[in-house]
Amino acid sequence: ITVQSNVAEDIIIIDSDKYFYVAESKRLTLLYEFDMNQSYTVKFE
Q1: Is residue 18 domain-resident?
Q2: DSSP string, 24-40
Q3: CA-based, 20 to 30 A from 41: which of 5, 7, 15, 24?
Q4: What is the pLDDT of residue 9?
Q5: Would residue 13 count as lying in a domain?
Q6: Are the CB atoms for 44 and 5 separated by under 8 Å?
Q7: Beta-carbon contacts of residue 9 (< 8 Å; ≥ 6 apart)
């Protein structure tokens, strides 16, 4: 899993059952339960 972030301004949901991105006060909170048999790249710009 690759997560790159320079900003934390948006709320982004990718596969709402498994991945939640929450922005609050420019701090990243990542709650995830990924299938490790797959490859994920998440980039926030």
Answers
A1: yes
A2: ETTEEEEEE---TTS--
A3: 24
A4: 47
A5: yes
A6: yes
A7: 23, 26
Determine the pLDDT at residue 40: 56
pLDDT digits (tens, 9 = 90+) for 17-45: 555 544 443 445 454 555 555 555 565 55
Q: How many domains is the chain built from?
A: 1
In a domain, 42, yes or no: no
CB neighbours (10 Å) of residue 42?
A: 16
Distance, CA of 25 to CA of 36 (rounded, Å): 30
If pLDDT is split at 50, 70 and 90, which confidence band does 1 have? very low
Domain extent at residue 18:
2-34
